[in-house]
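Side project, low priority. Logging it here so it doesn't get lost.
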Amino acid sequence: MLGSLALASPWMLAALALLPAIWLLLRLVPPRPQRVDFPPLRLLYGLLPRGRVAARSPWWLTALRLILAALVIAMLAVPTLRPFNQSGATRVTPLLFLVDNGWGSAATWTKRRDVIQAALAAAEQDRRPVALAALAEPLTDLSLSPAASLGPRLAALAPQPWQANRGAYAPAIASFLRAAPEAEIVWFSDGLAGDGDNGFLSALSEAGKQGRVTVYRDDARSSLALAGAANAPSGISVRVLRMGKLDRALSGTVRAVDLKNLPVGQADFSFPAGAGETTAQLDLPVDIRNDVARLEIVGDASAGAVQLLDRTWRRRTVGIVSGQDKDVSQPLLSANYYLTRALEPYADVRTAEGTSPAEAIGRFLDDKLPVLMLADVGNLGDAEVKLSTWIENGGVLVRFAGSRLAAAENTLLPVKLRQGGRTLGGTLSWEKPQKLGSFDANGPFAGLALPDDVSVKRQLLAEPDIDLPGRTWAALADGTPLVTAEKRGNGVIVLFHVTADTTWSNLVLSGSFVEMLRKVVGLAKSAPVTGAVAAQAGAAAPVYAAPSRTLDGLGAFQVPPATAQPVRADQPGIGRPDHPPGFYGPPDGLVAVNALPANAVLKPLDYTAVNASLADYTVAKPIALGPALLLVALALLLADALIVFFMAGGWTRLARPGVGSAALVVLALSLSLLAPPNAQAQNRPFDAALKTRLAYIVTGDKETDDTSLAGLKGLTAYIAERTALEPGPPDGIDPAKDELAFYPLIYWPIVPGKEPPPPAVMARIDAFMKSGGTIIFDTRDALQQDAGGAATPAGETLKRLLSGLDIPELEQIPAKHVLTKTFYLLDKFVGRYDNGETWVQATAPTSEDSDKPVLGGDGVSPLIITSNDLAAAWAVDAQMNPLFPVSTGLERQRELAYRAGVNMVMYALTGNYKADQVHVQDLLERLGR
């Protein structure tokens, strides 16, 4: 290492000591021919003696040749110029890496991790000790260790589905800086402001004043998130947020999926310039809306870009039956009006007009409504038996007091009413109206703010008994119940001890009335099929729901981690380490926990308090100086040849007739050899037909195409070194223009969101596969896949692509598939990642007693599907150094990835001949005859 300059073979510089000897040799030049005029005898006059045939070169020509020799020596040392952000420091000081690995970093995690790995590699080269802190994970001890030892930990580091808790690390950082005051801090930030940032920034401020803090941030892309989904009468609406108020417009798509991960609708959204929030509106029928379990931003893989919807969110249909006489003159003061206005924001309301309460109740029950509200309905008649059965099956009945209910006698009440305690002016009358006193801490109203403007002038009193306190959800200031409830079977009966209008109280005018009804309606399902949740909601003790499926940092479902704890069903809260975002509870009563609250706002983080040096998330690749030195050396060599040519009288020779024309022809041929590769592109199919070549599909995405080319170059070199096959250089092909039949194996990386080729091109691809060709489809998304099988953006793109092909039945590679033993014996096909599965055409056993599956004849599976990012594991630079790290950080994984590539190439070239080993015994017996 010489600062930013790295030498792969520094010992070659010892050849510079030979420059004096080279100088002695380079001083000589051929003598210049003499020009002698006619007559012929004059040619013999003045000639030099025969022994003097050399002359000394000018000093400048000798210097040119010495420079040429030095360039050749330097080129043999393989010099490489490291970029600035990888160059080592002049002093060996400790480093503290602070990594924001919350959901805000998930969308660009691959790029961020590459930057962190590059910084860690630079620290390893400079032998600097490093301490690493992942700010979204539980607090750990900040201790220095060799940079090389942090490789496996960094490879296992992944974004978490909650926001980084920087404040928790502030004391540990302060202690670390006291122990190592000269340490430098590198903060890989996600740019999102959060709680506790003030203490964190204060801990870094002192080091920032000394210029020892560097902050990586990505201003080119803002984090996107979803929050505050609402099931309005017009459709589903959800808030789409982005970090800060950027000056550029931004658009995207929100997709709605059900519990089976099937898409049921989508809507576009757009941010005007300068806006930090917009709304996506999905217009769907109510029945379809109630099936939606997940909203997600297409192409944005993070837990913040996912909004989970549980049973409490679903828009239920509520039937309202009023026992009051129809007041034509004052329709805006009726109970139906107040209930309808309170329920409309989150439920579909149906009222009964022109019919008796019993008939209306029977009609609503026939329609399987989950919630019924009876406003001052006393005598239920024949509907009481049917209504009781409906409650037992999970229905929610809400009753409101009134003169008719006070005078009636029925059993569908949560408490026994006290006679004589319902009229004002009696022995139990109040001198002044009573205010709302309290909500039961274990009831559904727990957590609601107590309004101070609600007053009750009249109520129905409950008969005191031992069970009354456990059935009271809301009470007045004097302790008398305002709302009581009782669990009946799988359903709930709720009684408001006041009317649903303003005659007895002003409760219906309060915003708390809307929230109370919302909580009550949330106890019901979209239809009263089962009642586990309703039964739980009616219990006195709080109900907790165990984790069922949780989200990872990329927004994909996974098996709940061991640290996940149950959440309170009525107060799930937002995601945190012990309650990660996801679904909790049984399948028929899921409770959703999201990464962001409904009123969330994404604020950009202000770094000015730290006085840090800012850097972007970019990794500049090392620059190989060898090719440039070679070009300079060739140019000097050509200049030396021309100088010697003209010093030896070459210009006079060119002046002879015919010699100049021949020189021009030679010059034209030389220039043709230096033509750029695309000038000879028309010969590529011819070259591919003469020599075996691997190929990749050009996707149009530069980063993906460069990785594919570098990967196939690395695999080609590995094949040439380890096998008898010597493939030619790989080709990038366009299936719409290039002939596919010349290539036995084609690598096709999937770019998320890219549309499939036109049908005519798909027909060519299908013909190639049916003619014996094999295509490797690589979604490169193994880290984004979850145990629940939810499709990733790349998986959705592959699904659309394969829908245009005649694809056979697929299966995961069996343990004894021919592909596992074509060249190397393998049990798994890994790439840059090792957790993805590999799929091939489904096979059949060779015989009833054989477990070695093969295809008939010499058939080869026309496609191989993987998600392990094979090309990134194979990719090498010009010096054959790996370009990308593997997930485990162990080179053994890269070696296995190369072996998997060799097996795939041999499989495509040789077929399933090795499966014939099962018939060896029969063949030997036949030969013996």
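Brief comment: The mean pLDDT is 80.
Revisit when time allows.
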